[in-house]
Amino acid sequence: MERRWVPDGPLDVGLALQPHKRGGGDPTWRQSADGAVWRTSRTPGGPCTLRVSAGGGHVHGQAWGPGAEWALEMLPGLVGADDDVTGFRAEHDVLAEAYRRHPGLRIGRTGRVMEALVPAVLEQKVVGQEAWRAWRWLLRRYGDPAPGPAPEGMRVVPEPEVWRQIPSWHWHRAGAEAVRARTIATAAWHAAKLEAAASTRELDRLLRALPGIGVWTSAEIRQRAFGDPDAVSVGDFHLAKLVGYALTGEKTDDPGMLRLLEPYAGHRHRATVLVWLTGLRPPARGPRMSVRDYRAF
Fold it and tell me: Domain 114-197 belongs to what topology?
């Protein structure tokens, strides 16, 4: 199935889809040499593969599998058609310049909670490489083959009941310790309620009622599933330092970051995305967080 959609303004498809990539070799995400992005998803209609490209003023989507119709219906939202920038104003010169250089920045939404939840939980309190290694192992072991002519090795995230049934020794082989494994399995029991959340506020309430999910994890999920432009990843190992350095020239902590982001209420996540796009990074003067390997424990 195919769909062509014409956005009503500048749109950078790559920027909109980048947040859904979980490290190099992510089995659910590929970008081909022609710039097209391939992405798999488990939709309400079933698994699908979606290929998204842009050119000639339109976005072109091609989809395969039982979930193809749903995926194409959601295509505009996925690349940011529902992103409302009303009320956003760059109060800092560096953010104004980043916004000027990236007029096509849009925050998209997938409408799928569990496929954002699992990698977010895997990324809790560990370096990205460790989490992405676990994500790849679990998808290759338990994910379904991607429908259609997807690039080799692509997989679709498992059904919630599969996450509930993964044995402890396979979590261990993936490199995820018992706490993160238990958090994912518990969330999978409540997947239907989470997927049915009607708003980002309701989803935040449901997520944070689950053991093992706090402010950071909820924000990471809502940014992707609901395209929440105000969901700040409080508690992130790097974010507060980056925001402080970009906006003031000095590192700061989470309370300091929230004070700096007060002028962007309603768009605080958008402001942090622009901080990343400035390319400004504080000098690295301390030891880096080490990559652990729970498989050896």
Answer: Endonuclease III; domain 1 (1.10.340)
